[in-house]
Specification:
With about 230 residues, the chain is an alpha+beta fold. Helices cover about 20% and strands about 30% of the residues. The protein starts with a helix and ends with a strand.
């Protein structure tokens, strides 16, 4: 087995156990690695999401794509919790605890305000990051399916109320100076504080969806915006 393939299988062992998804992930990434994606957020119209009304009880509408993505299957930008400067997948990153300790996000001790909200800062109002309660509402009022969109794995949430749906890419994550799990799992920050080291997130893979999970705040996760 080639060294690159061993590394990719080790990555998948850390973040997912579905054998078919693991092999698909290896086939997509073997050899060339994860290619950097170029973004220019000064051209916001190219990245501006569409607000999808799923008929949820709160009236919250969900973006049809991630912050920094031109389409639903793209990963978009990755952020540590409470910081608004995103990193494109495949580019040099430092999502380490040591680097995070020097950021504004590390100083926060409560839910995110607008100045530290990656959706609001990058897309403008009325877009904002969802709370963990809003992730739970999405989960409670939608059926979910592990599926593909234009060849990329992820989860589709289909409203039990009006039948409309949105797709969340299996974005993976940034951890330290490396990228992991693209096509195997999804990790999306909420605006909700959990503790000095953790914040709430939506996590998923082929085996399940976890709408109010939590993870290290220094991790590089995708962001999906909402608006009232």
């Amino acid at each position: 087995m080639e060294q690159r393939e061993k590394e990719l299988l080790d990555i998948y062992e850390r973040f997912g156990k579905d054998a078919q998804s693991a092999m698909d992930f290896v086939r997509r990434n073997i050899g060339a690695g994860i290619e950097p994606v170029e973004f220019d957020m000064t051209k916001k119209d190219d990245y501006m999401p569409v607000a999808v009304d799923l008929g949820l009880p709160s009236g919250v509408k969900w973006a049809d794509r991630n912050v920094g993505a031109k389409s639903p299957e793209e990963t978009g930008l990755f952020f540590s919790w409470g910081n608004v400067e995103g990193v494109e997948i495949g580019k040099a990153c430092d999502f380490s605890e040591e680097a995070y300790a020097e950021t504004e996000g590390a100083k926060l001790g409560d839910d995110l305000d607008a100045a530290h909200d990656a959706a609001t800062v990058n897309l403008g109002e009325p877009w904002r990051m969802p709370t963990d309660e809003e992730f739970q509402e999405l989960y409670d009022n939608c059926d979910w399916e592990w599926t593909t969109e234009n060849g990329y794995y992820g989860v589709r949430f289909t409203s039990k109320i009006n039948g409309k749906s949105i797709f969340f890419s299996a974005s993976g994550l940034g951890d330290g100076s490396s990228w992991y799990g693209r096509g195997a799992n999804g990790n999306y920050w909420s605006a909700s504080f959990y503790s000095s080291r953790y914040a709430r997130r939506l996590g998923f893979g082929s085996g399940g969806v976890y709408p109010r999970d939590y993870n290290y705040r220094y991790s590089g996760f995708a962001v999906r915006a909402v608006q009232n």
